[in-house]
Amino acid sequence: MRIRSFFWVLAAGITLSGCVEKEIIDDVNIEMGVGYDFVEDDKIEGTVMIPIFNPDKKIGNFTYSATAASSRDLIQEVQRKSAQPLVTGSLEIALFGEGIAKKGIREFTDAFERDASIGARVYFAVADESAKSILSGTYGNRGNAVHLSQLIKHNMETRNLPITNMHLYLFDLYQEGKDPYLPILKKVEPEIIDIVGIALFKDDKLKSELPPDKMFFFKLLTDKFSEGAYKLDVGKEKVVIKDLDSKHKIKLTKRDPYNITVEIKIKGLIREYTGHIVTPEIIKKIEKEFEEQVNKEASAMIKDFQEQGIDPVGFGQFIKSKTRGFDFKRWEDEYKNLTVNVKTDMIITEVGIVE
Amino acid sequence: MRQLFKKKLMQDIEKEAARQDTEGQKPEQYLNEHEWEKALLKSHDFKRTFYVNQKTEKKFCFSFISTLVDESILQNNALPYLLEGELTEIVDVKSLIPIADVQVSDHNEDIETKLFNGYVLLTLEGEEKYFAFIAAQKEVVRNVAQPEVEFSVIGPKESFVESLDHNLNMIRKRVPVKELIIENYTVGSLSKSGVAILYIDGITNKDNVNTVVQRVKDIEFDEITDSSYIVQLISDNQNSPFPQLLDTERPDRIAAILAEGKVAILVDGSPHALIGPTTLVEFFGSFEDYFLNYLLSSFFRLVRLFAVAFSILITPIYVAALSYHYELIPKDLLSTLITSRREIPLPPILEALFLELTIELLREAGARLPTKVGQTIGIVGGIVIGTASVEAGLTSNVLLIIVALAALASFTTPVYRMGNTIRLLRFPFLFFAELWGMLGIVVSFSFLLAHLLKLTSLGRPFLEPLYPPRITDFKDAIIRLPFTMQYNRPQYLRTENPVRFSEKKAKQKKDIDE
Amino acid sequence: MQQPVPERLQVSPFLVLYLIMSMQIGIGVLGYQRIIAKDAGYDAWISVLAAGLSIHIIIWMIYKICGTVEGDIVAANAYVFGKKIGNVISSVFIFYLLIFALAVLRTFIEVIQVWMFPEISTFWYSLVFLLLSVYIVFGGFRTVTGIAFFCIVLPSYLLLTFGFALKYAEYRNLLPIFDHSLKEFATSAYNMSLTYIGFEIPLFFYPFIKDAPKSQKWAHLGVFLTTIIYTVLAIITFTYFSEAQLAKSIWATLEMWKIVSMPFVERFEYIGIANWNLIILPNICIALWGGSMILKRAYKLRQKKGVILLALICLVAVSFFDTRAKINLLNDWTAKIGFAVTYVYIPILFIATLIAKKVKNKNEN
């Protein structure tokens, strides 16, 4: 009897005071996209995008914007405007306006890092012009957040965009001898968003931008395994090559000064060819041409990085892994004098179903 | 010859009487003064008729309970012979009438029991000490029907009936060996139910048998009407929602488990026999599994186990995910869930409870009503109430699907008792899911796990072969391996003879095309 | 020498594997990577391996001690120091087990508070959890072992989920190997204490093992498996995080779940943390069982009362640790006491037992 009454007290106690705050899915505003822009007077405009689930299964969007001096105040401002509590757990994409990115985004990424409810697969991107304008458009019928994240995802998996997400950004940011990079999004038409290049960071600050036609070579250097497509001129003819599987290997060939060889292996197939017939000779020629192109472009790109003092490929980290007692203080100068050779090996495996 | 027999019989009876005397009984006490008779005379079905033998003109008297006695036996097989034969003393009855079970006795205290077992008491004028019992039981037994709860498409179609003798007959036929022991006990101060405990001598562990016997003997209850009473009265832990003895209505299953080395308990008047010791996984094996190829039956067992997990967990997971863990839900599903819930005023827990209770009501109503009406209720309830409540905005259609699936899954459990338990288990899980989301589900799962770990069936661990882990017993647990690999009896039964049949050691390995 | 335990209460020797693993794997594993990398950097996985190997010596000593005295820690202390002093020393172990249980429970609640439910009440959750533990311990050692078994087997699938992090692995992080001094390696190995302790439990349940000396190989195997799990997990973590990033991650193991994506589950860490409930359950149960057992053996307190007493102390004490700093302090102290018990006290007891045995043998002769 005593035990039974004890259990009643227990059950009552747990129900009354053991409860935790609920986040019932239709009683919260699920923040799926967020963007930060610089407005005048050193103020920041934050935009939060939530999906609206209509009865006809179409997903609309709604954005809240607020202006404040710091990102902390922004959250307060937006929460105040929201009718239901704003929850961050399902965040898909965070956009940083170019102005913000140039000043450094650590302040914002720190909040994402600290918040246990935010996943590591959130996409970060730099917004050409303004993040607000991108978030407040309407793209596709699955909601803006899903649209944007799938846009980035598909371009990373099969096209020329190097793989990035919140985890990789933070990994690169904190990794000594490596600098992060993010895709740049732009609203090209009212209903279309395009990836217009890669933003290269020094620490957390935007340093320079890479145009879309260089993205293919950039991806070859940064990603462990990559896929992509590239259009090449061989003589008069044009050929589109689909890169199926490529790997790169970095080798330290000499120290003092450091000399590095990057070996790139590409397996590809021909997607389009404007010439009449693809003969083995032509394939050989295309391969050779392509190898040269890659060598040239990649070397030039690396040179450019060295001049700007950024290291998105992670040569510093690479040399550190080969050297005991590596000193990063000296690396700053050594990086400028680093010699990098790019060697490419290209194999065309298939030419499609016609010759 | 007849004289000799009579003499021997008389000697036996006297000897017995002498034994009774020394124990302080009073055989000379006159019948009519007995208390049972006074009490019985109040009932209208107690009959006493007097006749006179035509040859010796001795008066004799039949006393019996007419509702328990088949009077045609008396009329055809007893009365003509007793009237026309030479009936001088009570032992003559044995030789006169062509009925096998005729007993001459002087035990007054037996009379009551015998009368209630359908015997006719024969008393003879002048014989004050001795009297005879003539067996003339009225057998009111329904025909052997098809098993309903454990129906199988393939395999025997016999099921137990309400008569212990019939049931034992069905088992004996299947295990015709002298090692099959049937012990009989009477339980219940009012019902006097016969309880038979069956086991195979030389296979079954004596500890298990003794445990059962001891517990059956210790039962203190007045009216035992079914084996379900016995289950609840002899279970190891009577506060557990889990049945700790398997019940079956199939005589073939009893034969099979006897061969495995388990103990069976049959109760007079109950068409369900009990099996012990048993394990949790056994409740999810249908007997039909043994009639199918082992691949099929293993697959079905896995499906059933999955169904159980699904049935218990899915509604709590729904409640937990929608109340606390929106992050868990994939983006595509999120829109479906939110759209389906946008009009619903109730929080997920009430919505879930509402539907779960509706399903329980439907089940109860279906179970209480006659079969045909029950089916209608099922359809009306399932379709009409379900659709209507979604349209009225009381519940979301996603949850309706989930709850219906969970209910369906709970009905796949082959043992009815276990199915009920599983439906009950959902509610504590729901409570904790509402309280602490996923964490609550794991907490309630821990409680369940701890409870199952502590459970025993006749002192044997209930979770075996999962814990204590015994790999060899997995051959007939979650999956079923082919019969050729079932050469040992389950370990947890601790059988006296663990070998079912000798494993063929020298299996010839053939090459291709040999 | 103590009264032998009846066979129906004993468990099979191979279950020692699960007992030891379940006691070792608790809350330390959620964030040990950062602590060990503080000193030895990304070479720390070597320290994990080395520390794990050193445990085998202690296990060997434990079995030698228990084998010599044919009993548990209380018997060993009584054997060496005499009944009175022995019992006093044994009581220290009650305190050790208590603080162990407390640290595990409180840290897990902290994880829940940080990752899932910031508002969850420490008191009510502890109450439910301790009730569950008491309920289990009331079932006796066999039930406790059963829980240890299931709580290793059921959540073992979690190991696979760390495979998702492999996709992002940067193996170059681990290079160059041996880039740290011996002292740094040693500090890092010492910092593994909290994560590794728990392997000393054969001292408490030795008499409850059927054919106890045979269980030694299982104890070694258990420790070995834990070592492998910790080492592999450390390596995966080191390849997944960059060094400065890891230095900021309090619960690196949990953070790796943030990358997991499955078609039906967007975010795995909530499921993982909920599952962790199962992993810490045997920690508390074994600690409560062991503590109450010593109370019974040394002070003749009925074990039922002992368990409730210890659980109540836990319940009261757990509310005092309300900030990150205090919890950290609790964990530090648990680690220190654990280290003292396993690496200092057990070798001393081992040598003392050997001497005591010699002396006693001489006296008999």
From TrEMBL, chain A:
It comes from the Bacteria. Its main location: membrane. One of its GO terms (cellular component) is membrane. The keyword Isomerase does not apply. Keywords: Germination, Lipoprotein, Membrane, Palmitate, Signal. Residues 197-352 form the Spore germination GerAC-like C-terminal domain. Gene3D superfamilies: Nutrient germinant receptor protein C, domain 3. Residues 22-186 form the Spore germination protein N-terminal domain. Pfam families: Spore_GerAC (PF05504), Spore_GerAC_N (PF25198). Coiled coil: none annotated. It is a lipid-anchor. One of its GO terms (biological process) is spore germination. It is found in: Membrane. InterPro entries: GerAC_N, Spore_GerAC-like, Spore_GerAC-like_C, Spore_GerAC_C_sf. Belongs to the GerABKC lipoprotein family. This is Spore germination protein.
Automatic annotation (TrEMBL), chain B:
This is Spore germination protein GerYA. It is found in: Cell membrane; Membrane. Belongs to the GerABKA family. Keywords: Membrane, Transmembrane, Transmembrane helix. Its main location: membrane. The keyword Nucleotidyltransferase does not apply. The chain crosses the membrane at residues 302-324, 398-417, 429-453. It is a multi-pass membrane protein. GO terms for cellular component: plasma membrane. GO terms for biological process: spore germination.
Automatic annotation (TrEMBL), chain C:
The chain crosses the membrane at residues 12-32, 44-63, 93-117, 123-141, 148-169, 189-209, 221-241, 273-295, 307-325, 337-356. One of its GO terms (biological process) is spore germination. Pfam families: Spore_permease. It is found in: Membrane. It comes from the Bacteria. It is a multi-pass membrane protein. InterPro entries: Spore_GerAB. NCBIfam families: 2A0309 (TIGR00912). Belongs to the amino acid-polyamine-organocation (APC) superfamily. Spore germination protein (SGP) (TC 2.A.3.9) family. This is Spore germination protein. The lineage of its organism: Bacteria, Bacillati, Bacillota, Bacilli, Bacillales.
